[in-house]
């Protein structure tokens, strides 16, 4: 059984209540990548500022985190940062290339590369900038909770080993099988770094966390258990006392294994019906998801029918937090997101 992290209280915001497995009076909703290029105010804030510089400027990170809360009235903010930020703070040569994603100066291809990477450590001092950004955000959010996050070791390893984004995480999957000892050293190091990043956010006031194992769907259930689950479990174990959400894409066949990593909540992508997801997680796990991002561009009646289906299917779980099956596409009309929030909050 997945026990709630701590008992629910009357003062919990609706989303925290749902994450603890109870049904609040209104359906809570937020969107992965709600802060970002779909918002004109984001594009303005980011003009001339590199992505990682924005993440490491506390006032700017706080401002960008707040923008979707002000505009859409979502039930939670998600900290504006990136899964590679803790690696950057550990001194690793990484940048985020617009339109592409994280790119590493020295991809981990051999023993010397691995030794070089794992010689870096993420100190508490380096994390102060994150704590400052989170504290500033939490203060301005008032009663709206902040969700902290980190990347899961498998997904991070796929960037580190490849040196950048890849379609099928081929090199990482090769390494996991060809050199299991090196793979364990790599993913242990990533778990420590991501875990410290999560813990810093919780220390500074995050009320829940989400672990993004975005590319876990490239693994079979068997390989997920041996190559991704152990380090994901260690990352999640870095925090306690707040609900933890575990999300990946293409994970229909992995949901029951993901549950074993220890998170209280499972985030579900749009490729599986929430009834089926509830069944695969034993019917006892609160679920988050799983609006198809493609339908954000469909006429409202089509989107509304889809929303109704998602919410109906979500009743199969003990509690449901409405979200997308993956991030907001940059070209999304932000008015559609506002309308979804209003719709969710005014449903009978
Ligand atoms: O609103 C939010 O969801 C919070 C912020 C957030 C970002 N990245 C901001 C960001 C979160 C939670 C992430 C996590 C992240 N980063 C993941 C896991 C989630 C997922 O999408 O599956 C991954 C795989 C990354 C790595 C990464 N960072 C990619 C693939 C990209 C896109 C590159 C591009 O330009 O298309 C980034 C950059 C990034 N992270 C942007 C944002 C808002 C875009 C940067 C920009 O606006 O220039």
Q: Nearest-angstrom radius of gyration?
A: 19 Å
Q: How would a textbook summarize the main sheet?
A: 7 strands, parallel
| Structural classification | alpha/beta
What would the average pLDDT be, to the nearest integer? 96
Sheet with the most strands: spatial strand order? 1-4-5-6-7-8-9
Structure annotation, total helices: 15
- The stretches of 5 or more residues where confidence is low (pLDDT under 50) are none
> What is the level 1 CATH name?
Alpha Beta
Shape: globular
Could you give the order of the helices and strands?
Answer: HHHHEHEEHHEHHHEHEHEHEHEH
Overall strand count = 9
Query: What is the second-level CATH architecture?
Result: Alpha-Beta Barrel
Q: How many domains make up the coordinates?
A: 1
Relative helix content: 40-55%
Distance between the termini: 31 Å
Proportion of beta-strand residues: 5-15%
CATH topology: TIM Barrel
What molecules are bound to this protein? Answer: coproporphyrinogen III
Please sum up the structure shown.
The chain is of the alpha/beta class.
Task: List the topology elements.
Blueprint: H1 14-19, H2 40-46, H3 51-55, H4 58-72, E1 77-78, H5 85-89, E2 94-97, E3 101-104, H6 111-118, H7 128-141, E4 146-151, H8 153-162, H9 170-178, H10 180-203, E5 208-212, H11 221-236, E6 244-247, H12 255-259, E7 265-267, H13 274-280, E8 287-291, H14 300-314, E9 320-324, H15 334-346
Parallel strand pairs: 1-4, 4-5, 5-6, 6-7, 7-8, 8-9
Antiparallel strand pairs: 2-3
Bound molecules: coproporphyrinogen III.
Coproporphyrinogen III is lined by residues 32-37, 46, 51, 78, 80, 82-83, 96, 98-102, 149, 155, 165, 212, 214, 327.
